[in-house]
Amino acid sequence: MSYEAILRFWTEEIAAPGAWFVPDPEIDAAIRDRFAALIEPAAAGAYDQWLDHASGALALIITLDQFPRNIYRGEARSFAYDAAALRAANTALRRGFDLEVAPQIRAFFYMPLEHSESLYEQDRSVALAEGRLASQPNYVFHAREHRNVIQRFGRFPHRNECLGRTSTPEEAAYLSGGGYNPLSTEADAEAPNIQIMAQKEKDMAELEGKVAVVTGSTSGIGEGCARELAKAGATIIINDHLDSDESRAKADAIAADTGATVAYISADMSKGEDCVRLIRDAEAKFGKVDILVNNAGIQHVEKIEDFPPEKWDLVLAINLSSSFHTIRAAMGGMKERKWGRIVNIASAHGLTASPFKSAYVAAKHGLVGLTKTVALEGADFGVTCNAICPGYVWTPLVEGQLEDQMKAHGKDKDWVIREVMLQRQGMKEFATVEQMGKTAVFLASSGADLITGTTISVDGGWTAL
Predict the structure, then answer these.
(1) Which one from 3, 110, 360, 392 is the annotated catalytic residue?
(2) pTM, two decimal places
(3) Catalytic residue flag (residue 360)
(4) Domain containing 117: what range?
């Protein structure tokens, strides 16, 4: 059996949400006859080579996460492969494969997280749905509802009977009272209302007509900011230095997901002239730059006596000087129009320090100082300037670091998160790129008209110590 055959069946032969999620004995029988023999070998790793590309990864996740729910509907075995599905999904997400497929089927990369009884995975599921499935509001609704159940009970009560678990009195009351059940076809009745709500939100988008430039924005925090600003109605320019087809495709993907106008402009943020050209090209294309998010950044870790001077210069150029150059280029137009929003992505390391990060810490402290100065200069012209100071943010890079730390310490995920990576944070949770983007949207909104020259820490209490 090939992964292509699985995808043809799933996306062409049935190819409709009603067929995917509403019980149908004929479809269940077809899946049992054609694919049941794949599930055990897939769970044992026989098809892990499919994880080398997006289509194969999607097929493997469907095999482990969806097919058992059809074949063993109502039985404990329908959930027996969830752990294997989650491992496959996390590998695919770390490699960015979810962004290589159409939004209509992208949700299947996130469903193993949505099916998990871990609140940590549920939070990730909602963040991914909100950030990357904005054009599919029904999926966002169900992701939130799944998380709400886990927040309340710590498990899915509707699974108790088939798993032989005893329901608590609260769970029993919830089930008898018609509480949200992900297996219920009645949940589909919510779809029209959710679509209407999403359209109203789009119609009321506060940043409609604004033009936003986000540097370093084809992945990570920058992409999160670009997506959230796009969802808020802004026209977006994303940027990196690669000038690649993949980067241009990312602009197309954000546009398809959000319905916004999104363009890509290549510029090397280590070069002042490129920083200025980025702003000038954006102005030439869209007539103005209203919102500037300075996100581009790199890191180098080394004790100071061994820190390469060329690395120091490069970190300072990208993490600090690029913001000076883009602000300098954009400020005149913002002052003329009596409106502008500048958001600098600093760091908890703009407010505190860690060893072996001398250039990064120096640059981020400098960025906070630049933020304050620009705020004072723009105050009489309707131009605000603020800095967001994140702690650890969940990105594919950080996810890879987490797995390395688990191996190094011989501990599970929760221990490494709590005792190693987020040891300095009061709240032992990673921030998400979507949260960074929503903070940037707030700072660009009318609710933040009188917020300027300050830092907004999104660090789980790191800098409260």
Answers:
(1) 360
(2) 0.64
(3) yes
(4) 3-195
